[in-house]
Amino acid sequence: MSSSRPRVYLDISIGNRAIGRAIFELYTDVVPKTAENFRALCTGEKGEGKLGKPLHYKGSTFHRVIKSFMIQGGDFTAGNGTGGESIYGEKFEDENFEKKHDRPFLLSMANAGANTNGSQFFVTTVPTPHLDGKHVVFGELIQGKSVVRQVENTTVGEQDRPVEDVVITDCGELDPSVKIESGRADDGTGDVYEDFPDDEESATKDPQASLEVTKKLKEIATTLFKASSKDKALEKYQKALRYANELIPNEEQHEQLYNEFAKLQVSLNLNIALVGMQLGQYSVAIRAADAVLDSHHGKATDQEKAKALYRRGVSKSRSKDDEGALEDLKTAQELVPNDGAIINEIANVKQRIAKRTQSQRAAYAKFFS
């Protein structure tokens, strides 16, 4: 980071949910004209443009998202990638191609060919060297990787347009005196790790470091769960599982660490199944239990399999699939015959099935009488 370069921010929401702030540093020393265009469009200080719209990113959307490539926004006139306007008029020339698209989280100008820069921009999510010499790189993300990743991973429909609107709810320039910490800021839970493991340098140094970070995330989630902050706990358990799934080492090269990761995957999925079940997020619980039962790692004990079957069974029952629930619960009982919770749930499910059958018979009898 350079202290002399301006820093701007975009506050972003998906649907009606605020997902955070992305902060960029602009390369005013390399491409001053291009950088100034973006800075002024963040502040809105230039007023109304020639097309009759405010020269301001606030309220505009990311209209095009391609996973493992880039997220694109800045069309505040048409909102679909056909519009936009620079502070210099509708279009301006390519300033230079000194900076390359050699890594994720670079800020670059979208265009419709040579010398057609307006207000549209994109943020890379992987290296994109095929864009070198065609698009002007003018800045980089210095905080908010998880925000960009959330946009990158949002569901899209036709023409790569997000199904839910991805909106720049606010934007502007930060005062030079504001201190920006590199990396992810602590959200109050002790979690200082990026949402996606590829972006977290401390977790990708070696398999042991990966394991320690994953365990720390699990501890944070468990602390939240014990404090009855279940929504947040579920989010952190899912994040820990993402780390475990992506960072598990090669079994042949790191057998002991591989086994520790595999056990951690089972434990995390069981916790997700439990919290999902308690929160009424039954599809989440069922998927997590499926992962335990279908695990190719084969690390789940009979006790753990019984927990997964019980939690999946309860979730199926609450989702009005009593027959599927009964099958899971009976299988769980075979593994742990004397478990009181399983026995009680089987009785409850059987009672509901019997009551429903009786109601159906009464309805049929009335129909044919």
UniProtKB/TrEMBL annotation:
Transmembrane segments: none annotated. GO terms for biological process: protein refolding. It holds the Pfam family Pro_isomerase. It is found in: Cytoplasm. Residues 178-208, 296-325 are annotated as: Disordered. It catalyses: [protein]-peptidylproline (omega=180) = [protein]-peptidylproline (omega=0). One of its GO terms (cellular component) is cytoplasm. SUPFAM superfamilies: Cyclophilin-like, TPR-like. Its EC number is 5.2.1.8. Residues 188-201 have a biased composition (Acidic residues). One of its GO terms (molecular function) is unfolded protein binding. TPR repeats lie at residues 306-339. Residues 308-317 have a biased composition (Basic residues). CDD domains: cyclophilin_ABH_like. Residues 9-173 form the PPIase cyclophilin-type domain. Keywords: Cytoplasm, Isomerase, Repeat, Rotamase, TPR repeat. Residues 178-187, 296-307 have a biased composition (Basic and acidic residues). It is an enzyme of class 5 (isomerase). PPIases accelerate the folding of proteins. It catalyzes the cis-trans isomerization of proline imidic peptide bonds in oligopeptides. Belongs to the cyclophilin-type PPIase family. PPIase D subfamily. This is peptidylprolyl isomerase. It comes from Blastobotrys adeninivorans.
